[in-house]
């Protein structure tokens, strides 16, 4: 045979063990990953179960067919003295059988497919939390329909409660996905897509935009925080309040004045400062593609009323590391990095501001992080 | 196709022998030569068919039309009315040239 | 013949006309063989362009927070990678092989419409140049190869809202329009040629499988391209003439784009794979020394795939919120289309089983195709399981599927075809050792590059992202994938080296280096301009085999 490299079993042994060991390496990856197999809710569990079924069937077919192929390559390779093979043109019986059996297997899988898709689409009866998820370019806004307030980048929900999500976009198509809790549904302008999910464990999970939506599609993640009911209620009450007014004369107060007077209010709303209350984007921003205006209702940027309570900045491009944001020690403060150069951090996004001095940044960071 | 069949008598035999030679391992590709026939036979003289007659003729109109179309589209995408107009003219010329080409 | 006697006829000495110069012969040719070679050369050129784009992508993604490309550059690169590979590499190269081989396989002198054939080629060259020139204008298409609306209507630098669209999407629409015209020209030609110009005795039931698959592909192109034309046309109207087909604000619907596009897009993927199936069905029997197992099933499963491919398009849209009953319908049709594809794999394995395998390079690529396409077929069938698709659609899992079938499938088949038919086209044999090196590097590289993407999809990595953060556990797999991509690049370097070395002083191939079965081998290498001196005699599916081995000829054993 023309490949003496593979004749010796010792070499096969080395290759196989190298492959096995490297597969362990792959298993080590994936810590902290938003894995669809790391399920924390019934929908994700359902969908992960389906994956395992597919994996088993696919492995059996793969091993079966590939081993016949590899066997044939070794067994029937040309050697000196081997006669010409029988010129078999086909065998109707075998061909019918190997058409019928895969068809059967596939139809069984199809049955579970259709059953599964109906199961995850039907929202179970019971009390539900209603949230509207709005896809912007390139960040997520969440309007809590039951409580009339809005957040950005962070979705809180109580454990064990059904969350009903209405999906809204007035720009391009996005997709709402929380791998550990539910599969994705696209957010399409003009369509009122809805989905539901439930988390059965408290914790923080990652949400991801999964439809190419332009330049910064890569940095359009959101934080999903599942609390127990009490913590959730506390959070809701806090979010419904207007923004905290900082102590007069403090650094945060200087930041508040900067915010109000330097043009930030053109794109950002803070309840009690430049907007009077929260608004439902689906009702108020359905005139598509609003140009940046001073209108109260449809600001281009996220509402910052409780920015200090969030874990993410700007669609998750940076995490909000508040403990690194002590006044005067902002070297590792992500918010400071963002304010210093939003275009450098997230090129192409809508925040185009003139350069801020370190003093200004110091004050703004103090103010924004105080908005718990 | 009809013209070729006139030749079928002699060249059919000429073709077969070179092929068999190759099967036995000869390297060079041989032209159909008139090898000495095994039986004595009258060699029929048939007019040699010119390659050019049985093959499709060359033409530059396909290239011309393709180029013209791209000029047209360039005009469209650059919003340049001049290039667009040139493109339209070229396309028309190419279509007409193609249609009226003598083959 | 020159004589030494005085010639009483007058001879004219004149300059060569354009058509008689070397360049002119190529520019004005209508010979299917020359056109086929030009298609293949152009296709490979664009393969390098698309390959460079792939290497740029993988360099950017090799480490988290990559700074090799800006987001705008990355988005253009991944868009053009898709467009170049699909429209400018795979389709022209497969058309090129079809052009070269099909008339020879059916015993014809040329294609039915020689000038139309040349036109199709020149459109690929100029249309491809047109769409690549978008880089020179600084506005390459950047909305993905599928250009979803309404993003494609808003291609602006900074903010998507309220700005005039740049040329990017226009290049995409006009470019694909030009290339679509080329494909339609080619398809018309193939259909008429295959139906009308077969040698006597070659019934449709006896045409080689590569010809069968080319025929089905031609019909698919003719019926699928109108959807793309419509979709693109409406997009142009929206962008430039103020219509609102895809704009929800004015009661249009973005989903209309997706339905129209995928009505083209799904048959398109079968257009990209069926001729490859045909090539494999030619190579495996020759190198196994026995006929293809189950010719009828393979031929008709190709036709079945052709018909069914028009019924499955919305399986690309399972996440858009279609009503469950519609999703169930498309899940069913997708399951149905998996059956003929599975059957083919079994038939190929059965062809190899019990044969006398000559493991030359074309055979290695054919066997590699079967192994890789199996994986692609399995992860594709997984994607048809709708609840699972909800989790992995639009993630790297899909990218893995695409590349197993298009690279592990079609690209492997194209290289197999190259090594198989190159001796016929040029009269020279590729260097066997270098070919083997190419194959193994490519097989290892492809698996290294694309298998980890299964895991990445399961771990939550979405598609079309210019970078990813370091704390999500995706780093090692991405690096592995990038190493695989560069390994593929290395294998292509080996191929190029082999090409140059062979063209300079390659071993002469002879007319029939592989002891093959079909008529294209019953010619000189390279074939004469007129292909066949006399009409070939066809009495079975392996006419050349019958001619070489008359005692054990097919028509004496079976009746087809």
How would you explain this protein's 3D organization?
Chain A is α+β, with helices and mostly antiparallel strands. Chain A has 9 helices and 12 strands. In chain A, the strands form 3 sheets. Chain A has a 5-stranded mixed sheet, with no helix packed on it. The longest helix of chain A is centred in the N-terminal third of the chain and has 34 residues. Chain A is elongated. Chain B folds into 2 domains: about 50 residues, no CATH class; about 40 residues. Chain B is about 55% helix and about 0% strand. Chain C has about 550 residues and is mainly α. About 0% of the residues of chain C have low confidence. Chains A and C meet through helix 1, helix 2, helix 3, strand 7 and strand 9 of A and helix 3, helix 7, helix 8, helix 9 and helix 10 of C.
Spans of chain B of at least 5 consecutive residues whose pLDDT stays below 50 are 1-35
Task: Describe the oligomeric state of these chains in a short phrase.
Answer: heterotrimer
Proportion of β residues of chain C? under 5%
- Give the tally of β-strands of chain B: 0
What kind of sheet is the major sheet of chain B? none
The CATH superfamily of chain C appears as: Cytochrome c oxidase-like, subunit I domain
Q: Strand-and-helix sequence of chain C, N→C?
A: HHHHHHHHHHHHEHHHEHH
Number of helices of chain B: 5
* Domain count of chain B: 2
Summarize the structure.
The complex is a heterotrimer of chains A (372), B (103) and C (560). By secondary structure, chain A is of the alpha+beta class.
Give short descriptive properties of this protein:
heterotrimer, A: 372 residues, Helix Hairpins, Immunoglobulin-like, five-stranded mixed β-sheet, 9 helices, 12 strands, 36% helix, disordered N terminus, B: mainly alpha, 2 domains, 5 helices, 0% strand, rod-shaped
List the helices and strands and how they pair.
The complex is a heterotrimer of chains A (about 375), B (about 100) and C (about 550).
Chain A: H1 9-28, H2 42-75, H3 92-121, E1 128-135, E2 140-144, E3 149-152, E4 154-158, E5 162-169, E6 174-178, E7 182-187, E8 194-198, E9 203-209, E10 221-227, H4 229-240, H5 251-261, H6 281-284, E11 312-313, E12 318-319, H7 334-340, H8 342-345, H9 358-370
Parallel strand pairs in A: 1-5, 4-10
Antiparallel strand pairs in A: 1-2, 2-3, 5-8, 6-7, 6-9, 9-10, 11-12
Chain B: H1 2-5, H2 9-23, H3 51-54, H4 61-77, H5 81-99
Helix pairs in contact in B: 4-5
Chain C: H1 22-27, H2 32-61, H3 71-105, H4 114-132, H5 168-196, H6 209-240, H7 254-288, H8 295-308, H9 324-352, H10 361-383, H11 386-392, H12 396-426, E1 428-429, H13 432-450, H14 452-458, H15 475-505, E2 507-508, H16 543-548, H17 554-557
Antiparallel strand pairs in C: 1-2
Helix pairs in contact in C: 2-3, 2-4, 2-15, 3-4, 3-5, 3-7, 3-12, 4-5, 5-6, 6-7, 6-8, 7-10, 7-12, 8-9, 9-10, 10-12, 10-13, 12-13, 12-14, 13-15, 14-15
């Amino acid at each position: 045979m023309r490949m003496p490299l593979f004749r010796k079993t010792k070499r096969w042994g080395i290759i196989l063990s190298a492959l096995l060991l490297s597969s362990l390496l792959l298993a080590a990856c994936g810590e902290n990953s938003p894995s669809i197999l790391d399920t924390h809710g019934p929908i994700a569990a359902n969908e992960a179960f389906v994956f395992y079924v597919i994996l088993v069937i696919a492995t059996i077919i793969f091993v079966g067919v590939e081993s016949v192929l590899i066997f044939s390559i070794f067994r029937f390779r040309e050697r000196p003295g081997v006669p010409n093979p029988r010129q078999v043109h086909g065998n109707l019986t075998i061909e019918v059988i190997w058409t019928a059996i895969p068809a059967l297997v596939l139809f069984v899988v199809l049955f579970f497919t259709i059953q599964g898709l109906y199961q995850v689409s039907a929202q179970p009866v019971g009390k539900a939390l209603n949230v509207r998820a709005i896809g912007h370019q390139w960040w997520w806004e969440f309007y809590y329909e039951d409580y009339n307030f809005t957040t950005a980048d962070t979705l809180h929900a109580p454990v064990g409660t059904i969350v009903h999500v209405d999906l809204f976009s007035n720009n391009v198509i996005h997709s709402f996905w929380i791998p550990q809790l539910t599969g994705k549904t696209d957010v399409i302008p003009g369509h009122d897509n809805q989905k539901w999910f439930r988390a059965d464990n408290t914790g923080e999970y990652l949400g991801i935009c999964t439809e190419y939506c332009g330049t910064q599609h890569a940095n359009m993640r959101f934080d999903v925080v599942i609390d127990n009911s009490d913590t959730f209620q506390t959070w809701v009450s806090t979010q419904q309040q207007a923004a905290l007014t900082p102590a007069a004369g403090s650094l945060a107060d200087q930041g508040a004045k900067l915010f109000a007077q330097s043009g930030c209010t053109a794109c950002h709303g803070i309840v009690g400062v430049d907007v009077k209350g929260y608004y439902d984007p689906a009702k108020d921003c359905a005139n598509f593609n609003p140009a940046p205006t001073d209108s109260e209702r449809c600001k281009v940027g996220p509402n910052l009323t409780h920015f200090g309570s969030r874990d993410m900045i700007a669609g998750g491009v940076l995490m909000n590391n508040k403990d690194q944001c002590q006044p005067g020690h902002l070297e590792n403060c992500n918010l400071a990095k963002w304010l210093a150069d939003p275009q450098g951090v997230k090129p192409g996004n809508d925040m185009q501001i003139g350069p801020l001095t370190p003093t200004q940044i110091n004050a703004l960071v103090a103010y924004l992080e105080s908005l718990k | 196709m009809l013209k070729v069949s006139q030749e079928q008598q002699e060249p059919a035999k000429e073709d077969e022998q070179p092929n068999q030679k190759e099967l036995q391992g000869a390297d060079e590709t041989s032209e159909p030569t008139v090898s000495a026939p095994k039986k004595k036979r009258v060699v029929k003289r048939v007019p040699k068919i010119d390659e050019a007659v049985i093959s499709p003729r060359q033409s530059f109109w396909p290239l011309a039309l393709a180029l013209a179309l791209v000029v047209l589209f360039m005009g469209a995408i650059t919003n340049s009315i001049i290039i667009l107009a040139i493109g339209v003219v070229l396309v028309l010329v190419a279509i007409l040239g193609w249609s009226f080409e003598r083959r | 013949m020159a004589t030494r006697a005085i010639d009483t006829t007058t001879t004219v000495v004149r300059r060569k006309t354009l058509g008689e110069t070397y360049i002119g012969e190529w520019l004005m040719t209508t010979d299917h063989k020359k056109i086929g070679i030009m298609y293949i050369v152009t296709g490979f050129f664009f393969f390098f362009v698309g390959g460079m784009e792939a290497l740029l992508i993988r360099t950017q993604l090799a480490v988290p927070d990559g700074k090799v490309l800006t987001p705008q550059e990355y988005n253009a690169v991944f868009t053009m990678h898709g467009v170049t590979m699909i429209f400018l590499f795979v389709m022209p190269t497969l058309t090129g092989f079809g052009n070269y081989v099909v008339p020879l396989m059916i015993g014809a002198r040329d294609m039915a419409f020689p000038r139309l054939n040349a036109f199709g080629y020149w459109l690929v060259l100029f249309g491809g140049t047109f769409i690549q020139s978008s880089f020179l204008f600084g506005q390459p298409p950047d909305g993905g190869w599928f250009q979803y609306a309404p993003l494609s209507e808003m291609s602006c630098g900074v903010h998507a809202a309220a700005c005039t669209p740049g040329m990017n999407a226009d290049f995409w629409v006009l470019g694909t329009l030009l290339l679509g015209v080329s494909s339609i020209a080619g398809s018309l030609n193939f259909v008429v040629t295959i139906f009308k110009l077969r040698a006597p005795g070659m019934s449709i039931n006896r045409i080689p499988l590569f010809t069968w698959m080319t025929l089905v592909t031609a019909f698919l192109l003719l019926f699928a391209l109108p959807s793309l034309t419509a979709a693109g046309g409406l997009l142009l109207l929206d962008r430039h003439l103020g219509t609102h087909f895809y704009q929800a604000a004015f009661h249009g619907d973005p989903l209309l784009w997706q339905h129209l596009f995928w009505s083209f897009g799904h048959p398109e993927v079968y257009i990209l794979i069926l001729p490859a199936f045909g090539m494999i069905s030619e190579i495996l029997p020759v190198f196994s020394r026995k006929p293809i197992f189950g010719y009828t099933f393979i031929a008709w499963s190709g036709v079945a795939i052709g018909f069914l491919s028009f019924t499955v398009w919305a399986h690309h849209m399972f996440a858009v919120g279609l009503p469950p009953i519609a999703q169930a319908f498309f899940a069913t049709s997708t399951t149905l289309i998996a059956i003929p594809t599975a059957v083919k794999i079994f038939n190929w394995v059965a062809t190899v089983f019990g044969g006398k395998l000559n493991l030359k390079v074309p055979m290695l690529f054919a066997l590699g195709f079967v192994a890789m396409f199996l994986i692609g077929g399995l992860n594709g069938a997984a994607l048809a399981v709708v609840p699972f698709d909800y989790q992995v659609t639009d993630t790297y899992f899909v990218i893995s599927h695409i590349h197993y079938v298009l690279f592990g499938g079609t690209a492997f088949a194209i290289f197999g075809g190259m090594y198989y038919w190159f001796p016929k086209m040029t009269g020279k044999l590729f260097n066997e050792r270098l070919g083997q090196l190419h194959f193994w590097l490519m097989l290892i590289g492809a698996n290294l590059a694309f298998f980890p993407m299964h895991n990445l999809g399961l771990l939550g990595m979405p598609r079309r992202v210019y970078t990813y953060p370091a704390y999500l556990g995706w780093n090692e797999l991405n690096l592995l994938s990038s190493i695989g991509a560069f390994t593929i690049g290395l294998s292509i370097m080996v191929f190029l080296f082999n090409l140059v070395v062979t063209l300079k002083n390659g071993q002469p191939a002879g007319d029939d280096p592989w002891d093959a079965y079909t008529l294209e081998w019953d010619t000189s290498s390279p074939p004469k301009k007129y292909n066949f001196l006399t009409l070939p005699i066809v009495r079975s599916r392996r006419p050349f085999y019958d001619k070489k081995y008359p005692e054990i000829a097919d028509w004496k054993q079976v009746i087809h």
